[in-house]
User: Fold this.
Amino acid sequence: MSKIKKKIKVIKIDADKCNGCRACEVVCSAFHANPKYSSNNPARSRIRLIREPLTDVYLPVYAGEYTAAECMGRDKYVIDGKEYDECGLCRASCPSRELFKEPDSGLPLKCDMCEDDPPQQKPLCVQWCLNDALTYEEREEELEEEKERPGDVEAGLESLVDKYGLQKVIDTIARMSNKN
Ligand code: SF4
Ligand code: SF4
Assistant:
């Protein structure tokens, strides 16, 4: 398999610096609102805060890939004396929780590193985090050429097919195109 150079974009998270202000959720949901900045709703954000004030847990997690099947892992991790659920550390939009799903449609949400129009130099959640809990890193890596990953529309359709079945999705799209 041939190798290609790829730019890897990462948001590094330092949970110790997060104070739970939720500015990252606000700006992410506003940037991705339609029209842009017309509303802000953390439930539509692609970064969410796992927040348990009683145990002093504030953990920002940004959305990764959609997955149709839930995993079997329900382990717990203790990091610096604080207990985290395995689910809390996971970035997937999956069937076992409501996290990273668009609240009205149930479609999966995925972080696009703020490359949406207009693309941002640095992710907005990183820019808005005044506590430096989020740091943006870019590096180039040589990787095996891989199959193109599904885009937002494909991942959304896949989740609808998983939920309602292929025929119902096809019938609905056909009905919608007849209306237009
Ligand atoms: S903006 Fe920073 S400090 Fe505030 S919740 Fe998000 S990660 Fe935590
Ligand atoms: S990088 Fe952009 S899209 Fe991703 S979580 Fe941060 S604000 Fe949201």
Q: What stands out?
A: The beta strands are 3-13, 47-52, 57-62, 76-79, 82-85, 134-144. The mean pLDDT is 89. The radius of gyration is 18 Å.
